[in-house]
Design a protein that fits this description.
Blueprint lengths: L4 E5 L9 H10 L9 E5 L8 E3 L2 E3 L1 E5 L8 H5 L5 E3 L5 E3 L11 H5 L6 E3 L4 E3 L5 H4 L6 H5 L5 E5 L6 H8 L4 E3 L10 E4 L2
Parallel strand pairs: 1-12
Antiparallel strand pairs: 1-10, 2-5, 3-4, 6-7, 8-9, 11-12
């Protein structure tokens, strides 16, 4: 059975602390003011505001990153094949092959808005599931930093992996972001 790395985020456990975003920034050094892991507030009209009226208010957070889609539209439009899929399912971007500002096709077709332009280096950048850590047998920086154990990473094809066990504990109560886009993402969320 082949590897298929993926992630599960338990939104019931996420408190919006941003530890995952900070860990990602430290590990991957995205462009200033950008992040490959953004924690969105689901609730009111503004960040960190709940929906509803007192005493019936609700607010949850949704860590958002590259979905490493099995049918990734970014792969189909990159004229230099700077974007590719590794045998373990991780979608990576080779910055040496990227045309940067002269192209940006990947940003136009990504329905999740997670590919960033680095002006200083004139390249596109995105979450790579911390391949430098994965190749060393470690988990992603965001999963390791999550003190509330809301982020799980591993091989979706291995029933004993952290991610597979977390999805099983969710009892089938999972969802993907933007299912209407038909990209078959490998980042799953609990139904919160």
């Amino acid at each position: 059975m082949s590897l298929q790395y993926g992630m599960f985020v338990d939104v019931e456990r996420c408190i919006g602390c941003q530890a995952c975003s900070v860990a990602c920034k430290i590990e991957n050094d995205p462009p200033l003011g950008k992040s490959f892991m953004n924690v969105k507030t689901l609730g009111g009209a503004h960040t960190d505001t709940p929906s509803g009226t007192y005493p019936n208010v609700k607010m949850t957070w949704e860590p958002t990153l590259c979905m490493h889609c099995r049918d990734a539209p970014c792969l189909n439009v990159c004229p230099t094949q700077a974007l590719s899929r590794r045998p373990d399912g991780i979608v990576v971007l080779n910055e040496d092959e990227c045309l940067g500002q002269g192209c940006r096709r990947c940003t136009f077709v990504c329905p999740y808005g997670v590919i960033e332009f680095n002006e200083a280096e004139n390249v596109m950048q995105k979450c790579n599931f911390c391949t430098q850590r994965v190749d060393a047998g470690q988990t992603t920086a965001c999963a390791e930093a999550c003190v509330y154990e809301a982020i799980f990473f591993g091989d979706l094809n291995d029933p004993d992996s952290d991610v597979s066990r977390a999805i099983e504990r969710a009892g089938g109560q999972t969802r993907v972001m933007g299912p209407e886009h038909n990209t078959d993402p490998v980042v799953y969320y609990s139904i919160g």
